[in-house]
Design goal:
Largest sheet: 6 strands, mixed
Distance between the termini: 39 Å
Number of strands: 6
Order of helices and strands: HEHEHEHHEHEEHHH
Structural class: alpha/beta
Strand content: 5-15%
Strand order of the largest sheet: 3-2-1-4-6-5
Oligomer: single chain
Shape: globular
Radius of gyration: 23 Å
Number of helices: 9
Length: about 300
């Protein structure tokens, strides 16, 4: 015999709905707070900037545009936003989806049509990774478009997980300790590229995209290739995050806690000219310790469940 009262049966769905609404409000606040924090920490956007947001049709770039528009409405500084999409003429690409969506937002946008798909398919043998050539072609076109539009900043939708994946890919496959910076000068020296989602976890962007019902356009070029190195690294990080909570956050924080004297790059630290000083160094090495001491205070502290989100 069931012990569930009629009142409980009626109120349980309502309680679930309220809980879901509460979690979405927390997510909303967290996303806007973390993007605002990254913008402030690295001075990504300044008064009078014209920010060109590169919108591919994927969840990350949709979320970037969405959050930047939200921040612009409440920001203490004035800046402009223009959305730009590069239509690479991939077969089956729904060319009407993005213009329709961007018009619904009532913001300026530009669709650049360039058949890079044919170039990539012609130059890259079947079965080989297309990402490198595709990204180089896309980068050059977007730099040109930014100049033509008078954009002062180019905003890309790379998030925290992308930055960690790039770090590990460079270590595993490129023998370099190199990541993906939140702000940089473009290859041609003429543009500032920013990544306002630098502090944001991909799982949060997935939830936000589902909530906002973005009209996602899947990539049928590089995104459909099996056994990509980045996909393998992504799966590894997801597995670590599930099995060892906090590990990914620590790895990300480490990107801002670099100690050149404890690496091996002679261009960054003068190992050859080191001399005894007779002065104790509080940050120095305890040479015979097998295990590291307690970590130093973090240079970047990102609290995902901040009380302000509640």
């Amino acid at each position: 015999m069931s012990t569930t009262s009629p009142d409980t049966a009626v109120t349980a769905p309502a309680a679930d709905w309220r809980r879901a609404e509460f979690e979405l409000r927390k997510l909303d606040k967290r996303l806007h707070r973390l993007v605002g924090q990254a913008i402030a920490d690295f001075k990504m956007i300044e008064p009078g900037d014209k920010v060109m947001v590169c919108v591919s049709g994927g969840k990350d770039s949709y979320a970037l545009l969405d959050i930047l528009l939200g921040l612009r409405r409440r920001a203490p500084i004035a800046f402009d936003v223009i959305a730009v999409n590069l239509d690479q003429k991939q077969p089956g690409f729904p060319a009407d989806v993005l213009p329709t969506y961007l018009r619904s937002l009532g913001i300026p946008f530009h669709i650049e049509t360039q058949d890079t798909h044919s170039i990539v398919k012609r130059l890259i043998p079947e079965g080989q990774t297309m990402c490198s050539l595709c990204s180089r072609l896309r980068r050059g076109i977007l730099y040109r478009v930014a100049s033509e539009l008078g954009a002062t900043k180019i905003a890309l939708g790379h998030h925290r997980d992308d930055m960690l994946q790039t770090l590990l890919m460079n270590m595993f496959f490129g023998s370099r300790l190199k990541g993906m910076p939140p702000k940089l000068v473009s290859d041609d020296g003429r543009h500032i590229v920013i990544r306002p989602l630098a502090y944001v976890a991909e799982v949060d962007l997935e939830r936000w995209a589902e909530h906002r019902k973005f009209p996602i356009i899947p990539c049928t070029l590089c995104g459909s290739q099996p056994n990509l190195q980045r996909a393998q690294i992504k799966q590894m990080l997801r597995d670590w995050d599930r099995r060892f909570p906090g590990r990914i956050d620590n790895m990300f924080t480490a990107l801002a806690n670099v100690v050149p004297s404890h690496l091996m790059d002679r261009k960054l630290y003068p190992f050859e000219t080191l001399r005894r000083t007779g002065v104790a160094d509080p940050d120095g090495d305890i040479a015979f310790d097998e295990e590291p001491c307690a970590p130093a205070p973090s240079a970047i502290r990102i609290v995902r469940d901040d009380p302000r989100d509640g």
